[in-house]
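ARCHIVE CARD
Drawer: 12
Card no.: 0347
Subject: one protein chain, sequence and derived structure
Cross-reference: see card 0346
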Amino acid sequence: MVPRFNITRTEREIYVPFVGKRTTLCYNTTFSDPTRPTGDAQVIIGPVSDRQQPNSYQQLIAAGLSHDDLLANINLFFPNGRATHKNPHLRQCGVGSATLKRLTEDALEIGCKALYWIVEQGNPHALAFLAKQNFTAITPQYHFRLLEQD
């Protein structure tokens, strides 16, 4: 059963070491059930050239992106709250997919050409979610998905 929830977004500038100021989109998920934890996600907008890992940069270029194309780097993604490992029943109810859809729409509106995500290799739930959402693995840790431009 999909819980009733609302996703809000705020935008701010942050300083990213070695690359400078970047626009950050911060998402907050609140649920109609007051006992359910609040979720959050954060996306940092920056060019492909921000990617510090040479392998990541080369794969993104090989996928058809250019040095200056914008990426939406998913920095945090806890749409169901940060305790899903303690409450696994909170997962797989559509909140993560809805949050990813929202941030994808926002990234496209800003002009991003791809989503980029770094995931812990020991997180099978996150890796399964990425596969379901059509992300391509650059390495077991680095993943991306090209965005469709209208």
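Annotation on reverse: The helical segments are 54-62, 95-110, 124-132. DSSP finds three helices and seven strands in the chain.
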